[in-house]
Amino acid sequence: MSNYIDLRSDTVTLPSEEMRRAMAAAEVGDDVYGEDPTINRLEARAAEIFGREAAIFVPSGTMGNQIAIKLHTRPGQEIICEERGHIFNYEMNMLAWFSGCMVRPVAAPLGLLSWELIAAKIAGGTYYLAQTGLIALENTHNMAGGTVLPASAMEEICREAHARRLPVHLDGARIFNAAAFLGRPVAELTRGFDSVMFCLSKGLGAPVGSLLVGSKDFIASARSVRKALGGGMRQAGVLAAAGLIALEHGPARLHEDHANARLLAEGVAEIPGVAIDLATVQTNILIFDVSGTGRSSTETVEALKREGVLAGTVNPRQIRFVTHLNVSAAQCRQAVEKLRAICGHVVPTSAN
To answer: What is the architecture of the domain spanning 253-344?
Structure first.
């Protein structure tokens, strides 16, 4: 897809030449035995950055989230999360398959949960009700358009949940984007959570991998669950080498992706028949409605592809653009002009 302007996701980023050199030269060992020095360095550095005792390298964010869910809950419990949350909608219902739990979804404005909304959904003590076992937050919130949960809201949720002896997990796949938007370090933003998962393979630019951070005992238990899920990757230091570079250098440039998303959003907002709430465009994701053009999102995305622009659909009305290190400001401007030209050819609606 090298000839396309790829706005489908920040997962499509390609490893830099520095990453490729590091991968080729990586010192490796058997990580299942704890003997891969490059993975050990990556895990130690992640723990340090997040102010935690330990971390574990996993193949994907989904695996990291599901390990945390398994360790925080027991079968038959409920997990409270926002209704558009990744763990609820995009992880193959693994929380039911693997952990025997169900979701108690909560609708939140802009996807941003508050303690008030969560408290109303916590199960009472009646024995025949499924009991709340975990609260899971997502920051940034992918399907709400990359919106950022404020630090004060995260702190209140963690404080009040812990007062009720409820653990809180953070799906922080893009937590470094949230940190860039808020101007605060990730350790400060996430200190109240019992566990945090974050991805190396999105905005940070690594080809693969995520990390789960928490206490020493929690991560020791996570190793057993990772193995149960098939995540024992043996000589995976070749992957961790790229992850180290992503972790050290990726966060500093995320503001560029945010600026490009704003550039896209402002251009999209000027196209007749296209609707977007600019207030939701806080990081590197934008979601907009094309139904006013007379085309469905699928028809529009197919037309964009013919013009050399790749995008994703959210539903029949909405399209998602995601900026990343392999998309320039000039390419974002081109994408807007391609969309403008497509939307200028309105598809007539059938008469009733």
So the answer is: Alpha-Beta Complex (3.90)
